[in-house]
Amino acid sequence: MSTAMAWGAALCAGGSVWLLGGRARARELRRARLALAVPGEVGPAPAWRRAAAGARGRLADRVGPEVWVLVGGLAVAVLGESVVPLVAGVVGVPLARRLRRAREARRERERRTDAVIALCGALAGEVRAGRQPGEALRTATEAVEGAAAGRARAGAAEPTGTGRAVGRGLGGEWAGVLAAARFGGDVPGALREAARKPGAEGLLGLAACWRVAVDRGAGLATGLERLEGALRAERDQRSDLRAQLAGARSTAVLLAGLPALGLLMGGALGARPLRVLLHTGAGFGCLLVGGLLEGAGAWWALRIMRKAEG
């Protein structure tokens, strides 16, 4: 039984490494071959290799890095000769996927916020230069996207808040805003529609400035500059608050990992804590109660920090 579980752990670990690292490694190898090869000597890859790379990429996109939770549970199951850690790993995979998606959503929201701030600044400059609002909106977007494309061609890292972030961060709704500006449509309504995405709420202020400037002839550039300053100050305040909470978050993560450190120390001393926890009634009860308390404590600490950030 232990030999079969060991073979299963080895196969699972190898498959995970193949899934997670194969795609990026293949892309880098292709770039290196194209850069170093002599012209005329680079031939197409064999069909089986292209099919294997495509299958690996699709599986990697579907599985994701949270497969390591399952690998860790399988490894602990082999060491402890019990299926309980494997079941815990299976349960932990969707939780890890949810955390990863929440982190990606937060980054996407921050990218949209940076895009809105960059757009307000560029649009204010175009209006100051004497352009009409609709033409200024199109020109500002094209100018910032062109600058970002030039930096990408030069090999420079694309900073946060560039024009490419404007095009990508605001999604398909931004195409509707540009179309409304080009053909005389309802630009404030299109801006409000684009502002529904998380992180793009600053477009509501842009829509209000646009409506006031068009209906009452007020200065659009002044309102945009004030809006950019307010959005930038709000973003900086959130960044400062996140930096202040980094210490508390690190402490919570460290405390959550102390039980695992205790198990490692007990195993190093020859106490065999996994056998006690997984194969005795009292140990299993302690494991169950401790796991529930550990999860509740981590959830409570993260909830406090999320409320503080909000």
Automatic annotation (TrEMBL):
Name of the molecule in the record: Tight adherence protein B
PANTHER family attached to this UniProt entry: CONSERVED TRANSMEMBRANE PROTEIN-RELATED, INTEGRAL MEMBRANE PROTEIN-RELATED
Coiled-coil positions: 224-251
Protein topology in the membrane: Multi-pass membrane protein
Membrane-spanning intervals of the chain: 252-271, 277-302
Keyword list, A-Z: Cell membrane, Coiled coil, Membrane, Transmembrane, Transmembrane helix
Pfam families named in the record: T2SSF
Cellular localisation: Cell membrane
Domain annotation Type II secretion system protein GspF: ranges: 170-265
Annotated GO CC locations: plasma membrane
